[in-house]
Amino acid sequence: MRRREFLTLPASSMGGVLIYALSGEPIRLQAQNGTLRVPLRFFTEPDARTIAAAAERIFPSDASGPGAGEAGVVVYIDRQLAGPYGRDKYRYTKGPWVESIPEHGYQGKANPQQIYREGLRQLDGFTALSPAEQDARLTSIGKSTFFQMLRTHTIEGMFCDPLHGGNAGMIGWQMLGYPGPLMSFRDDLEKYRGVPYKKAPKSLSQVVGRPVKGWEEETG
Amino acid sequence: MERLKPTDVVIVGGGWTGLTMAKEITHRTALSVVVLERGPGRKMADYGSAMDEVDYSLRFRMMQNIAEETVTHRHTLRDTAVPIRQYGAFLPGTGVGGSGEHWTGFAERHAEDDFKLATEMKQRFSAARLPDNLSIQDYPLTYHDLEPYYWKVEQMMGVGGKAGNLRGKIVEGGNPFEAPRAHEYPNPPHKMTWLMNVWTDAAKAVGYRPFPSPAATLTQNYTNPDGISRGACQYCGYCMLYGCMVGAKAQPTNTLLPLLKPKKSFTLRTDSWARRIVHRDGKAEGVEYMDADGKQVMQPASIVIVASFTQNNSRLLLLSGIGDKYDAATGKGSLGKNFTHTVGGPGGATIFFDKPLNNFMNAGGQAMRFADFDGFRGIDPDAGVLRGGQGVGGGAGGGHPIAAFGRVPAGEVSRNWGSDWKKAALKYYDRIGSGGNFEMDHLAYKHNYLDLDPTYTDKWGDPLLRLTIDWTDHENNQRQMAAKISTKIAQQMARATGGRLIPAESGGLRASKRYQTAAYATTHLQGGTIMGSSPDDSVVNSWQQHWRVPNLFVVGASSFPQNSAAHPTLTAVALTLRTADAMIDRYVRRPEVLL
Question: What ipTM does the predicted assembly reach?
Answer without folding.
Answer: 0.96
